[in-house]
Design brief:
The protein has a single domain, classed as 3-Layer(aba) Sandwich (Rossmann fold). A hairpin with a 5-residue loop joins β3 (64-73) and β4. The longest helix is centred in the first third of the chain and has 18 residues, at 15-32. The protein has four helices and nine strands. The strands form two sheets. Strands 4-3-2-5-6-7 form a six-stranded mixed sheet, sandwiched between helices. The model has no long low-confidence stretch (mean pLDDT 94). It is globular, with a radius of gyration of 16 Å. By secondary structure, the protein is α/β, with parallel strands linked by helices. The protein binds inosinic acid and magnesium ion. Inosinic acid binds at residues 47, 72-73, 79, 102-110, 155-157, 161.
Length: 186
């Protein structure tokens, strides 16, 4: 069996720092929506599943959750450009206060597509919360309301984020050893 810990080059954001920031984001969300009865968190699958779960458990206020499966990446580490809905929401969002929960904003293609797609469904409000932001890679300007961390232009894994569908269960954000990607360029 592969030892995924042996593939880690260095830890960019450790577990305690991540957890403290998630709690601070949840407190900010709680305060911003304090006068609203309704709040719907939309988790962008797959990468945001752990972030959604921690944000949801940190919120003391009532809220509902739904999931949307989005695909924009192939097997490699760079965007394929085309964004696709592979699993749609279960329920309409008309007149709901919607907060998109995303793992990372890179080129901005995914969130730009999602924002336009969800706005067409007439929510009462639509905001975006991303755990990670790579400002250096932005191709499309997307307004993001909550950002956990700005990070450098490095491919990262852990806390929900994958490379080739593994490493999602690491409890921190890490950079992989270059040798892990070697087969992509072979
Ligand atoms: P964008 O559409 O280019 O903004 O890319 C957003 C999506 O690409 C995210 O939801 C991730 O699934 C994926 N992605 C971008 N950068 C990384 C990374 O460093 N590690 C893992 N996935 C990433
Ligand atoms: Mg993703």
């Amino acid at each position: 069996m592969r030892d995924i810990w042996a593939d880690i080059d260095n830890i960019l954001i450790d577990e305690a720092t991540l957890q403290a920031r998630v709690k601070a984001l949840a407190a900010q969300i709680e305060s911003d929506y304090a006068d609203q009865d309704d709040l719907l968190l939309i988790c962008v699958l797959k990468g945001a599943y752990i972030f959604l779960s921690d944000i949801s458990r940190s919120l003391k206020r009532p809220h509902s959750i739904d999931f949307m499966g989005i695909s924009s990446y192939g097997k490699g580490t760079t965007s394929m450009g085309a964004v696709q809905i592979i699993m749609d929401l279960k329920a309409p969002i008309e007149n709901r206060n919607v907060l998109i929960i995303e793992d990372i904003i890179d080129s901005g293609q995914t969130l730009n597509y999602m924002r336009r797609n969800l706005m067409a469904r007439s929510p009462a409000s639509l905001r975006i919360c991303t755990l990670l932001n790579k400002p250096a890679r932005r191709e499309i300007d997307v307004e993001v309301d909550y950002i956990g961390f700005d990070i450098p232009d490095e491919f990262v894994v852990g806390y929900g984020l994958d490379f080739d569908e593994i490493y999602r269960n690491l409890p921190f954000i890490a950079i992989l050893k270059p040798a892990v990607f070697a087969h992509l360029f072979a």
